[in-house]
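Troubleshooting log. The previous structure file for this entry was overwritten by mistake, so regenerating from the original sequence record. Sequence copied from the archived sheet and checked twice against the printout by T.R.
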Amino acid sequence: MNLVHWLIGTAFAQGGSVPDGILPGKPPQTIPAGTNGLPGLAQDIVNIGFTLAGGITLIVIVVLGYTMFTSKGNDAEFKKALTGVSYAAIGLLVMGISYLLVRTLLTLQFNN
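Regenerated output below.
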C-alpha cells in the first residue's frame, strides 16, 4: 500500500482501504453515502450547519479585515472592524469546540 492509498483511505475513514473508483486502475463504483437512518441524517444536518456557519464566519472575517486595511487612518472605523474580527474569531473557536462536542455526542449516542 503506497502513501496515496493510505492518505485517501484515511480521509474516507475506511481503515486504510480506498473505495473503488477513487484512484485510477480501480473499477468505478458508487461510493457509499455513509450511514442510513436517523444517525446519518443527524450527522448530515450537523455537517451542513457547521459548514455553512463556518464559511459565513470566514467571509465576515475577510470583509472586516479588508475594512481594517482600507480605513485610511479613521480610528473609529478601524476599531469597529477590529472588534468585529475579534468577535468572529471567538465565534469560530466556539463553533469548532461545539462541533467536536456534537460529533462526540452523536458518535456515543448512536454507536452504543
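The two ends are 32 Å apart (CA to CA). Archived copy saved in two places this time.
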